[in-house]
Structure formats: structure tokens, C-alpha cells
Design a protein that fits this description.
By secondary structure, the chain is of the alpha+beta class. It contains 38 helices and 23 strands.
Length: 1107
């Protein structure tokens, strides 16, 4: 029998042979051999000492076997589990202890250390606590010392660096290694371009990049920024075949982490880093595979671009409305108690730096709502239950009885009409394309302001008579002699629209003309222009045939009775002419690859080539008394009309303009809505517009949404419409610092730029740009008057003034239902006991799509179709079509004149500060008190970051499911009726997406209308219906941008869905209505052809759910 020593040597040789044939290793044979070696070591002390002795190769062979095992395990499916078992059995600790033991030998065995670190680098990836174990065990220090002693031993350096990488996810380890001099050590390893040891250099850069994620380590590396830039340039110059992109990206990653701190950004600028990365990046643009380098370079340059404050004297709104009651702790008091100049301080803090993915340039993923892990979800079950007691005494609510006359109406005296609101007599200016006259300042003049020039007399529309020819050939508008008529020649330039001689004449062409044989020609086909060297005429399209609810004369009358803080005296053309939806579909814009990167590089050029920048202010509401006279080299801007918003325009290049939006009144933020006029353009010139003070971190402008433009030349040619337009559209973070005061206390925030390019097609045109289809308060008043004219004797329509707003505008409240068939007791009883539906809209002024949906709802309700009549017979509708008239009038995006978001005031609204919310909630409280709570409450909104139309509702059960709180089944008992209406809409409305709906209640939404009406009023079907500002990604309208036609259609389909809901909730009663017998087939016909099948599993069985 061989001796134990000979046996051990034989087994070791067999194991070594297996290692050499590692690709063909039979795991079972290896296991048998190692088991025998283990038995010998455990039973024969002498054999154990001989195997681990310095001159023996036994330990090396065993480690090599382990390394082969790890490599093979990682390469086969499921092999990672074997390593997991090895870790769970303490394998990591044993290997780390072997490192300690091997380090005590003098000198340590290089082969053993090499194999140990090779195994540890792989095993450590599967051990979450590897870094902590290595530090506490002392093996981490051994590895660092090994590095320091073997800087020229590239074979040993590589596995040691890999072990450091595995340890670095631990922040404590990163700091510890920095203190131990590892950062400086890494700069001794990396170097300029070389074809040798590229694998080692790649690992070294990755390790250094991981180290520099620690701010303390980044501070240590600041002095090496010039070195990194030099190395990067050297690799860029020499790596002409782009074989070492990963090394170049590793250098940029190190720079990216260093520039996360203020000192690093300063060092980068001082080392001319902006110019270096700009030049190297532009040289890479033609090679698509170099995009990772370009994107990372762009991130670094954007981060290091010196932070600037917005080019404004203050970020507060240029307009101010004095509140009669200012709560001491409210937002307005805080805003105006700020010391002068302290509201917009540039913040260079390193705190709260927004993390950005390296591929955020071109591969952005559209945001989705994921409730999993959402800390905002309400977890208090008591707050998810309806309140059982009413918060206000009934005696206090009785005053609201007058808004519910229909509940006690006996129809013996008929229904009385609501008196019209008194009209103002202030002058209103006819829309013109002239060089804009200086406006009357609405804010206190600033020191050093230019003297105010003589005001230009406004053209008073009260002096204008508009008469239409009986033969239908044209409209002629005549005015009495006006004192400002002599100035008209100076005001009208290019587009002939107002008389140049004598009294102003406003002539309009009709939308439908009679041809030679009496046939009709639609406005879209009429493009004739009258030209005269003696007299210019403004063709005002008569859109009556195409827009039955629009009347320019009536609109002007409505404007006269509208109160605004800036005291607007002009009317915008689109609001005056009206909008006819285009017949063609407008597709979601396909984003051109690289467009955002190109725009950002153009911004960076401003810093690199400052002499190319004009920086010329061409429009400024803060200094209105200094008109710009430039000889026609710049565009002219205007936003001083109802719902307009543009504060400042700065010409930065010949055809490029930076635009600054105005904050909501009595606020210092909420910049999103825009609506402004542009004139003086050149045909064919490539204009670029940059809105530079957007606040949201992402936008549908990155996913195919376009801005809206209205061309006056197109309008007078018979095509009065808003169209989607613009190219090279993108949305990205810019270098304008957002004050922590405006950012809710968060530091290190920046504004965002929304940029688009535009080429104009008409000379001397006047164009308007808007965030979405404008719908002004005066438009609403005009539509309501026109709807009143459509009322038939069978329709019950009453318009009340719910309250007056802070700005002195009335808030209309509509009641719509069907008149009783007779005055018999049965009919009157049926009339009074109809269930109520309560609808509201436009609490956020910038969500104009909500008003277009409401317009569709109102037109359907007032229509003459059998379905509309049945709907009126089925319900009593109470509608507040515009909850925030002041915000709409003054061009706000989110707030009312109180400077607050009204949809966050429903829990405790103030009658002084939030009158529309206070009184609307009071109406609902009154209904709850008399046991007539609405069957459905729905608040119409617009959504800026999602596609499709969808609903938010309220569900106790679904909210609890999204959290970790425990609740018994009886606590979660809930009727699923809240899902019925969204389900119906998903079946019939092409734009509606059930998959986008959510019924989870979040803490941040607890003061919204939807949640408060659900919880306090007890309305189970309490919804917010959100309409996209962009378009649809499912159904019939997939790939299309949404327009007013689709929005109005959605409003009408909501009404039809209520009919289906009525049938489901009380089928026996509805069968008595003759008109509803065909509702089922009608729904089948209108059902979306491309309806989605990926509905929520809980709703698949709800098609016939009864509540």
C-alpha cells in the first residue's frame, strides 16, 4: 500500500490534470478526488502540513480546482445556485481567512494570492455582505497592501482590482480605501494611450470610477481632473479604430463622478474641460457606436455649465393681485415676505443632485404609474373610510337650497331665466398684425425705467357696427369716426387688415359663399384675397356654418364683461375667429434620433463661443414702456390678451429665441402653460424657440407631442384652426438654477427647456403658439349663451351664478335635465327624484383639454337626439364648467389668484380665498344632508405626462392591496361598482384606456375633489377623468395626437356611458323609457374597434356587474 504522502501526491496530480482539462471536467470525479484529499488532511496531520507547506503545490492545485468550479458554475444555467450554497456554508469566510494566512508568510506566495483573489472576485459577486466581511476580516487591507507592493506586476494587479470592485458597493469601504491612499494609487496605474495591458486599464478605470462615487474620494481626485482630461484626449486621438470605447467611457465616468461636487465642476471648467469634451464629442457625432461617449460627455458638460439665474428681476409673477385676506402662514404671505432679491438665488449646492442615467439623451423610457413601493399610498384605514357624520350643520347649508329649485319645482309658473351679467364698457382692441403698440404697465415701474411714451388710443369695439350682407357675399364692418383712426397706417404693416384711409373698416368674408349658380362653397375651399393698393381689408371668416356655437361679435361682448388682473384690452385672433377642427388626423411626431443631443450642444456653444450670442431682449412684461425698435431684424411677441402667457423673449441668435413664462399670479412657480403671438417673421427661415423655465422633470414633448399654432393668414383664407406643428422638439434639463424657495425647499434643482423649431410659410403672417388648444373664460360664456339659444321646450336648463371669484368674475352653475311630460303629481315626483350627476372642470387653468371635453358633454346634453333626451330624462345634471375662471383669464397654469392649487383645498376651503371650491363643496354637502348625494361625481382634468384618456377613482380594497398593512376581509368589504363606469367607457370610447386607470388613494391627493367627495360626501363613483395633452397609444386613435374633435367626442361618450350605467343600476326603471331600448345596440355600434384586451383581471367579469 502506498504511504499517505504518496497517496496525497497522486491525488493532487490527478486533480491538477483535471484542472488542465477544465473544459471537460467531470464534476463527479473532481468531487471524489477532493473528498479523498479532505479525508487525508482530516485524519493525517503530517499530510495536512505537507500539502499546505511552502514548497508544496497542493494548496495551489486545490485553489485552482475551486476556481475552475466557480468558472464552470457561472457559465452554466443555474450554476449560480451552487456558488450560493458555497457562500451559505461559509465558503467566503474560509477564503478570506486563507488570504490572511497566506499574507503572513514571508514573502507571500504569489501563485496562492493570485488564485485566492481570482476565486474571491467571482464568489464575492454572489455574496451581498462580501465587502463587510473582507473589511472586518482584515483581508481588504491585505489586498490593498498587495496592490501597493506589486504596481508593476500586472498579472497580480488584475484579480486584486477585481476584488476591490466587489467591495466598493459598501460606502464605508469606499471611504476607508480613500483614506488608505487607494485613489492616488489608481492614478499611478492608469495612463495615456497604450496597446498593452488594456484589460488592466479598463478594470483600473472601473475601480476608480466606483471609488469616486464617494464625495470624499471625489474631493481627493479634484487635483487629477487635468490629468484625466489629458488622458481622455490622448485616447481619443489614438484610438482611431474605436477598439477601446470602454476605456474611453471609463475615463468619462471618473470625470462624471468628480463633477458631482462643486469643487470638481470648478476644476473641470478651469481645465478647459468644456471645450475639450465639446470638441471631442463633435468629432464623434458621425459614428453611431460612439453614442455612449457623446451622451456621457454631454451629461458632464450640462452639469458643469455655470448655473445662471433666469433673466428676470424676480421669479414672482409680473402681475400681483392684492388679496383682502392673506393668511399669515399661507403661500402668498411667505412669498411677499421674502427680502428683495432673495427669491431667486443661484444654488450651487451638491445636495439633492438629480441622478441622471447616462442614456437619458436618446433612450428615455416614457413614465408609467407604478404603485408598487409608492410611499405616497395612504395606509391609514380610518382615512380610507367614508365619514359618517356631516361636518356642517344643516341650518348653515340651507342657503344652498336656491340652487336646487328643480327639487321643489311645481312648474305652475314656468322656469325663469337667469339675468345676464352686467357688461363693462372698457375699450377692447380689434386684433391686428401691427407692430405692437406699447402696453399700459400693470406692475409698479422699476427704477431706471424708460419714460412712458404717449399711449396709442385703443380701438373701441363699442364704436364698431358689424352688418352681414343679405346676399351672403360678404360681411362689412363699419365704424363711426374714431379719434385713433389716423394712427392705423402706422400700426398696420404687411398684412392688410384695417383701413389705411379714413375711418377703420373691418370687412369679413363668410364661411360659406354662394357661387354663380347658387351652390355653397365651404370656408375651407375659399381662399380668395381682395388686394388693393388703396385700401387693405381684413377678411373675418364667418364660421357660423362650421362652428354653430361661435360668434365673433358675441365673443367680444363676453370679453367686455371679463375682469383680468392685467386689465387686458386686446383680443387674440384665434379666440375671435374660432377654431375648426382639421379633417385630417395629426400623427404623433416620430422623434429624430440625436435631436436632443444636438440642441444641448447648441446650448453649450453659448459658453464656448460667447461672441456669437446676441442676447437681445425683444419682449419684456417687466419693462413694458421701452418698445424695441430694430428695423425688422427680430420677431415681435405679444401675450397681453385673455389666457396669454409669455413674460420675456430674448433673441440669442439670428433665428433663435429664449422665452420665459410668467409664474402664476401670487406665486413664483408653475410654469407650463403658454399662449403668445408672433409676427414679423421671414418665410422659410429656420426659427428655434426655447421655453427655458419649465419645471416638470419630463414631458410628452419628448414622446411625440407638438405645440399648437394658429396662422392668421390661414384663417382669413378660410382655414381658421389650431394645428400641431414644430420639428426637433425635445425637453431637457438646462443650466438655469431653480431657487430652493421656488422648488419647495429642495436644493440643487434646475429648470428645463422645451425647444422646438419652426419654419413659417406666409409673409407678414401673425401666428399664435399655445401649449394646448386654448379655451378662454369668455369662450365659455359665449358657448353658454349659444347653448341657451338651442334649448327646446322639452329641456330644463337653468344657469345660476354660484359665486363671484376673487377677480370679480362669475362662476356659472348649470342645471340640465328633461322637463316633466306634464304637471301631474306622478310626473313631478319622477322629475324631482331623478338621480343626480355632478360634473366639474377646469380647476387647473392650463388643462384646457378639460374644457373641450366639457364642451362635448354640454353639447350632447343640450342636443336633440333620442339618446340626449333619454339622458336628460334619466338624470339631473349639476355642472360647474369652470372652477377657476380667474386662473384661466390671467394665463395661470395651476393656481387661482390666491396663489394656491384649488384642487388641494377641498378638505377645508376658505370662502374668502377659495370661493368656487367652498361653494361647490357646499352644494355637495347640502345634497348629502338631504339624502340626495350624486350617483356620479366627475372632475375633468388634463394629464401632461401620460397618453390616452383614463380615470382615477377611489377604492379602499385596491389601496390596501398596494400596501403592507393587514386588514380583515370584513374591513375590506367593498362594492365593485366604482369600476363599472370606467369599464363601460373602455368598451365604447376609442381614446379611453382602462389599463391606465387607477383606484388607489394617495396621501398627496387626500385634499383633491375626487377623494374628498368620496370620503366626506359618500359618493362611491367619485372620479377624476384625465385627458392626455398628447395622444393615444392604444385603440382606434393609436399613434395620433388628440384634437378638439376627439376631446369633444370623449365628452359626448361620457354621457352615453352614463346611460349604460343607469341601465345597469336600475334596469327595470329604464326599460320604461322607449328611447333606451336601442341603447345596447347603439353602444355596440360606437364601441371602439381597437379596444384593448389587456384589461385589469378584476374587471374582466364586470361587463354585467350590478351595484
Amino acid at each position: 500500500l502506498p504511504s499517505c504522502k504518496a497517496l496525497a501526491e497522486c491525488l493532487t496530480l490527478s486533480l491538477e490534470k483535471l484542472n488542465r482539462e477544465s473544459m471537460l471536467v467531470d464534476p463527479e470525479i473532481a468531487r471524489q478526488i477532493t473528498a479523498k484529499i479532505l479525508h487525508l488532511i482530516q485524519t493525517q496531520e503530517k499530510t495536512r502540513k505537507e500539502i499546505v507547506s511552502k514548497g508544496s503545490s497542493g494548496m495551489e492545485v486545490i485553489l485552482a480546482t475551486l476556481e475552475v468550479f466557480v468558472c464552470v458554475s457561472l457559465s452554466v444555467p443555474g450554476g449560480g445556485r451552487r456558488i450560493g450554497v458555497f457562500v451559505s456554508k461559509g465558503g467566503t469566510g474560509i477564503l478570506l481567512q486563507l488570504v490572511i494566512s497566506a499574507s503572513k508568510e514571508s514573502p507571500p506566495s504569489e501563485e496562492v494570492m493570485l488564485q485566492l483573489h481570482s476565486v474571491l472576485a467571482k464568489v464575492g459577486q454572489k455574496d451581498r455582505k462580501f465587502g463587510v466581511k473582507a473589511r472586518l476580516n482584515g483581508a481588504l487591507n491585505v489586498t490593498v497592501n498587495l496592490l501597493k507592493q506589486n504596481l508593476q506586476n500586472y498579472k497580480l494587479l488584475l484579480p486584486c482590482l477585481l476584488v476591490l470592485q466587489v467591495c466598493l458597493p459598501s460606502a464605508v469601504n469606499a471611504v476607508s480605501l480613500g483614506k488608505n491612499g487607494v485613489v492616488e494609487l489608481m492614478f499611478k496605474i492608469i495612463g495615456p494611450y497604450s496597446k498593452k495591458n488594456t484589460s488592466l486599464l479598463k478594470v483600473s478605470l472601473d475601480t476608480l470610477g466606483a471609488l469616486l462615487k464617494s464625495k470624499t474620494n471625489a474631493q481627493r481626485a479634484v487635483v487629477h481632473v487635468p490629468v484625466l482630461l489629458y488622458i481622455y484626449q490622448d485616447w481619443h486621438r489614438n484610438d482611431t479604430r474605436h477598439r477601446h470605447i470602454l476605456i474611453r467611457k471609463g475615463i468619462l465616468s471618473c470625470l462624471k463622478n468628480i463633477t458631482n461636487i462643486k469643487l470638481g465642476r470648478k476644476a473641470f471648467i478651469d481645465a478647459d474641460g468644456m471645450r475639450i469634451l465639446y470638441n471631442t464629442s463633435t468629432e464623434c457625432l458621425s459614428v453611431r457606436t460612439l453614442d455612449p461617449l457623446i451622451n456621457t460627455s454631454s451629461l458632464i458638460m450640462r452639469k458643469c455649465f455655470p448655473k445662471n439665474r433666469l433673466p428676470l428681476p424676480t421669479i414672482k409673477s409680473v402681475f400681483h393681485h392684492q388679496l383682502l385676506h392673506v393668511p399669515a402662514g399661507g403661500p402668498v404671505a411667505q412669498l411677499y415676505n421674502q427680502p428683495l432679491g432673495m427669491d431667486d438665488v443661484v444654488d450651487e449646492s451638491d445636495n439633492n443632485e438629480e441622478a441622471e442615467a447616462e442614456n437619458d439623451m436618446e433612450n428615455e423610457v416614457e413614465e408609467k404609474d407604478h404603485h408598487a413601493g409608492n410611499d405616497d399610498i395612504e395606509t391609514d384605514i380610518n382615512k380610507l373610510r367614508p365619514k359618517e357624520t356631516h361636518s356642517r350643520p344643516f341650518e348653515e347649508l340651507k342657503i344652498y337650497e336656491r340652487f336646487f329649485m328643480e327639487l321643489s319645482e311645481d312648474f305652475q309658473k314656468g322656469v325663469t331665466a337667469t339675468p345676464a351679467a352686467p357688461k363693462s364698457h372698457r375699450p377692447i382692441i380689434v386684433p391686428t398684425a401691427q407692430a405692437l403698440p406699447p402696453k399700459t404697465p400693470t406692475a409698479a415701474p422699476l427704477q431706471g425705467e424708460c419714460p412712458h411714451p404717449a399711449p396709442v388710443p385703443a380701438l373701441d369695439l363699442d364704436t364698431i357696427n358689424i352688418t352681414k350682407d343679405q346676399d351672403g357675399c360678404g360681411d362689412h364692418t363699419h365704424s363711426r369716426t374714431h379719434p385713433g383712426a389716423g394712427l392705423e397706417q402706422e400700426l398696420v404693416q404687411g398684412l392688410e387688415r384695417v383701413s389705411l384711409d379714413g375711418p377703420p373698416i373691418l370687412a369679413g368674408g363668410v364661411a360659406a359663399r354662394l357661387g354663380g349658380e347658387g351652390e355653397e362653397m365651404l370656408a375651407e375651399d375659399w381662399a380668395e384675397e381682395e388686394e388693393s393698393s388703396e385700401e387693405g381689408v381684413l377678411h373675418v371668416p364667418d364660421t357660423a356654418l362650421l362652428l354653430p356655437l361661435h360668434d365673433p361679435d358675441l365673443y367680444v361682448e363676453m370679453v367686455k364683461s371679463t375682469s383680468s388682473v392685467p386689465q387686458f384690452s386686446e383680443v387674440a385672433y384665434p379666440d375671435y375667429f374660432g377654431h375648426v377642427a382639421p379633417t385630417s388626423r395629426e400623427h404623433i411626431l416620430e422623434r429624430v434620433y440625436g435631436v436632443q443631443r444636438t440642441k444641448i450642444f447648441q446650448d453649450i456653444e453659448r459658453l464656448i463661443h460667447p461672441n456669437d450670442i446676441l442676447d437681445k431682449v425683444v419682449y419684456d412684461l417687466d419693462i413694458q414702456s421701452c418698445p424695441v425698435v430694430d428695423g425688422g431684424e427680430s420677431l415681435k411677441f405679444n401675450s397681453q390678451f385673455e389666457s396669454g402667457n409669455l413674460r420675456k423673449a430674448v433673441q440669442v441668435r439670428k433665428f433663435e429665441y429664449d422665452l420665459v413664462l410668467n409664474s402664476d399670479i401670487n406665486s413664483n412657480h408653475y410654469h407650463q402653460w403658454f399662449y403668445f403671438e408672433v409676427s414679423g417673421m421671414r418665410v422659410g427661415a429656420p426659427y428655434r424657440f426655447n421655453i427655458i423655465n419649465c419645471e416638470k422633470s419630463n414631458s410628452q414633448f419628448n414622446y411625440g407631442m407638438q405645440v399648437l399654432m394658429y396662422s392668421v393668414q390661414e384663417a382669413i383664407s378660410g382655414r381658421p384652426r389650431w394645428v400641431r406643428t414644430g420639428t426637433d422638439i425635445c425637453y431637457y434639463k438646462n443650466h438655469f438654477s431653480r431657487s430652493s424657495i421656488a422648488a419647495g425647499g429642495q436644493k440643487g434643482k434646475s429648470y428645463y427647456t422645451m425647444t422646438f423649431s419652426m419654419t413659417f410659410n406666409h409673409k407678414d403672417d401673425v401666428c399664435y403658439f399655445a401649449y394646448h388648444y386654448p379655451y378662454t373664460y369668455s369662450t365659455l360664456k359665449m358657448h353658454l349663451q349659444k347653448l341657451e339659444a338651442l334649448r327646446t321646450p322639452q329641456t330644463y336648463l337653468r344657469e345660476d351664478v354660484l359665486c363671484e371669484t376673487l377677480g370679480g368674475n362669475s362662476c356659472p352653475l348649470l342645471t340640465i335635465t328633461a322637463m316633466p311630460e306634464s304637471t301631474s303629481n306622478d310626473q313631478i315626483c319622477q322629475f324631482r327624484n331623478r338621480p343626480l350627476v355632478f360634473l366639474s372642470s377646469r380647476v387647473h387653468p392650463g388643462e384646457t383639454n378639460a374644457s373641450w371635453v366639457m364642451k362635448g358633454t354640454l353639447e350632447f346634453l343640450m342636443g336633440s337626439s333620442p339618446l340626449a333626451h333619454s339622458l336628460r330624462e334619466a338624470y339631473i345634471f349639476k355642472i360647474v364648467p369652470m372652477l377657476n375662471p380667474d386662473g384661466v383669464v390671467n394665463g395661470n397654469h395651476r393656481c387661482s389668484l390666491s396663489g394656491e392649487d384649488l384642487n388641494r383645498q377641498w378638505q377645508n376651503p376658505s370662502p374668502e380665498l377659495h370661493p368656487t371650491i367652498y361653494h361647490t363643496k357646499s352644494l355637495l354637502q347640502y345634497l348629502a344632508a338631504i339624502q340626495r348625494a350624486p350617483l356620479v361625481f366627475c372632475d375633468y382634468h388634463g394629464h401632461s405626462r401620460k397618453k390616452n384618456v383614463f380615470m382615477y377613482g377611489c377604492s379602499l380594497k385596491e389601496t390596501v392591496w398596494e400596501t403592507n398593512i393587514s386588514a380583515t376581509s370584513c374591513e375590506l368589504h367593498e362594492d365593485l361598482g366604482y369600476r363599472t363606469l370606467p369599464k363601460i367607457l373602455s368598451q365604447m370610447a376609442p381614446a379611453f384606456s382602462l389599463a391606465s386607470c387607477s383606484f388607489v388613494v394617495e396621501r398627496s391627493k387626500e385634499a383633491t375633489a375626487r377623494v374628498v367627495v368620496w370620503r366626506e360626501i359618500g359618493v362611491q363613483r367619485s372620479y377624476t377623468m384625465e385627458s392626455t395633452l398628447c395622444g393615444c397609444d392604444q385603440g382606434k386613435y393609436k399613434g395620433l395626437q388628440i384634437g378638439t374633435r376627439e376631446l369633444e367626442e370623449m365628452g359626448a361618450q361620457f354621457c352615453v356611458a352614463l346611460l349604460r350605467l343607469k341601465r345597469l343600476t336600475s334596469p327595470l326603471k329604464l326599460r320604461n323609457h322607449a328611447h333606451l331600448l336601442d341603447v345596447e345596440s347603439d353602444l355596440t355600434e360606437t364601441r371602439c374597434k381597437g379596444s384593448r384586451s389587456d384589461t385589469h383581471p378584476l374587471t374582466r367579469s364586470l361587463t354585467h356587474t350590478h351595484t
